[in-house]
Design goal:
Layout lengths: L18 E2 L2 H14 L5 E7 L2 E8 L13 H11 L7 E9 L8 H5 L7 E8 L2 E10 L2 E5 L1 E2 L5 H8 L11
Parallel strand pairs: 1-8, 4-5
Antiparallel strand pairs: 2-3, 2-4, 5-6, 6-7
The structure holds zinc ion.
Amino acid sequence: MARNQEGGAGRRPVTVPPFVLPDDARRTIVDHATRDRPLECCGLLVGRDRTVIAAVPMRNVAASATRFRVDDREHIGLRRALRVISPPAHVIGVYHSHPAGPARPSPTDLAEAHYPDWLYVIAGFVGRRVRVRGFVLEAGRMSPVRLSTGTDPRVATEGATTVGPSSRVRRD
Ligand SMILES: [Zn+2]
């Protein structure tokens, strides 16, 4: 359903390889965002490397239409649960919703984003349309990053071919 939404505005990330956000994780985010309207929802993204395995809804302790704050205790509980998962999986990002606005990072989102390796997903509502977009923190800005469903054969090559000479490809 949400396929082919990215890039609609003509802005394609050129330096950042895509993240994989499978359809079921995307659906979890959209369902959560829809359910919690008019308040913002939030949750954490569990995965490996640049692949999301699951979106895990968290309580928004800010209980606000314009802000979110992940419940610390739920966050700690999730990290504890992940310690016994094999093969290992980690928190690789966070999602939240904009119940009455586009999927674009706000100044607050930027100010509160601290993890350069994380994927920041925003589900934004414009009217009844919801859009899910991904961002990464890059040089003090939130840059859009392509979200693949994981079934797209272009991903493997796209990650490599869109990396410009000025960026470094990190290999672990
Ligand atoms: Zn936001």
